């Protein structure tokens, strides 16, 4: 039997080599298209098909709730929006989400969980494209060059698969006017230059509105209302107004003015109990032994606000991770 399997494997490799040799005569784009649909090629190479794309997202909200602490709004909004978009076989537009909150509140982490839920190769998938504005679009002196680069980035990657996840971090540092070139790809168009972009997902990560969110939740707590009673509609209008009034970034942006953002996702400041949950999760991940006193000690190292009643940690889980790294491993 092992000899037969070896012969079959050899024949399969031979057929694949013959197939690859035969299509060398085609154009680059035609070769890519053919390779994507060849079953032998797609066994070991990521292709835009059911073998590599995940359709069942039933566990997305559960994973978010288990790994992202203190973000009941974000977890629910993101999971419902993504599941609804993937389930819809004929969406009217791409899914466009704007994540807002202070540094460290899990915006990037949530976008990675979304990527992990959509693609078999998780965040290593070529269908997940992550860009940082201050690194990839920092040439403020040549806006045209940045615009051309951004357009090509979206067009080229959308040619690879009908379902792409584009994430833009530090979106609030985009050169003024740059985001406007994205509007054709986000709008309610059946096709742009013959290509359908409506099954894509775009996520913008921004610190803009972080202070607005923090001020809102402080007032909420001062009114003796529980955290879980905050609803997304309460914050959405404040975030949108802040976006429009922010210098650069979304300032007078067509994305805002034409209402192309489907979901505004607020990330709330963490309470002390959430800080300890972050610390415990990180300690367990590193297989460290710990006591409850260890979690208290970590929480005590951090600064909280407001001064009158220190309810909230000023940053997020990133700093907590750094403190855990300083713990002895034995």
TrEMBL record:
<protein>
    <submittedName>
        <fullName>Torsin-1A-like isoform X1</fullName>
    </submittedName>
</protein>
<dbReference type="Pfam" id="PF21376">
    <property type="entry name" value="TOR1A_C"/>
</dbReference>
<dbReference type="InterPro" id="IPR049337">
    <property type="entry name" value="TOR1A_C"/>
</dbReference>
<dbReference type="Pfam" id="PF06309">
    <property type="entry name" value="Torsin"/>
</dbReference>
<comment type="similarity">
    <text>Belongs to the ClpA/ClpB family. Torsin subfamily.</text>
</comment>
<dbReference type="InterPro" id="IPR027417">
    <property type="entry name" value="P-loop_NTPase"/>
</dbReference>
<feature type="domain" description="Torsin-1A C-terminal">
    <location>
        <begin position="270"/>
        <end position="321"/>
    </location>
</feature>
<dbReference type="InterPro" id="IPR010448">
    <property type="entry name" value="Torsin"/>
</dbReference>
């Amino acid at each position: 039997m092992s000899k037969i399997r070896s012969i079959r494997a050899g024949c399969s490799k031979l057929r694949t080599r013959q197939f690859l040799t035969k299509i060398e005569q085609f154009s680059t784009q035609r070769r890519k298209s053919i390779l994507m649909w060849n079953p032998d090629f797609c066994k070991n190479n990521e292709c835009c098909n059911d073998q590599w794309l995940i359709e069942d997202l039933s566990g997305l909200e559960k994973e978010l709730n288990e790994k992202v602490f203190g973000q009941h709004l974000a977890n629910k909004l993101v999971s419902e929006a993504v599941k609804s978009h993937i389930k819809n076989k004929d969406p009217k537009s791409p899914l466009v989400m704007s994540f807002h909150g202070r540094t460290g509140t899990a915006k990037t982490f949530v976008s990675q969980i979304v990527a992990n839920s959509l693609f078999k190769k998780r965040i290593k998938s070529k269908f997940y494209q992550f860009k940082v504005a201050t690194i990839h679009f920092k040439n403020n002196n040549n806006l045209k060059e940045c615009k051309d680069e951004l357009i090509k980035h979206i067009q080229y990657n959308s040619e690879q698969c009908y379902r792409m996840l584009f994430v833009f971090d530090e979106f609030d540092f985009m050169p003024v006017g740059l985001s406007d070139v994205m509007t054709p790809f986000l709008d309610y168009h059946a096709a742009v230059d013959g290509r359908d972009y409506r099954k894509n997902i775009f996520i913008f990560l921004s610190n803009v509105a972080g202070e607005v969110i923090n001020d809102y939740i402080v007032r909420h707590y001062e009114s003796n209302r529980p955290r879980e009673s905050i609803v997304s509609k309460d914050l959405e209008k404040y975030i949108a107004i802040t976006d429009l009034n922010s210098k650069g970034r979304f300032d007078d942006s067509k994305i805002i003015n034409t209402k192309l953002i489907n979901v505004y996702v607020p990330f709330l400041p963490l309470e002390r109990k959430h800080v300890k949950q972050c610390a415990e999760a990180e300690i367990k991940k590193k297989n460290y032994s710990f006591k409850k006193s260890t979690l208290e000690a970590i929480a005590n190292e951090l600064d909280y606000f407001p001064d009158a009643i220190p309810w909230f940690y000023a940053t997020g889980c990133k700093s907590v991770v750094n403190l855990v790294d300083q713990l002895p491993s034995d």
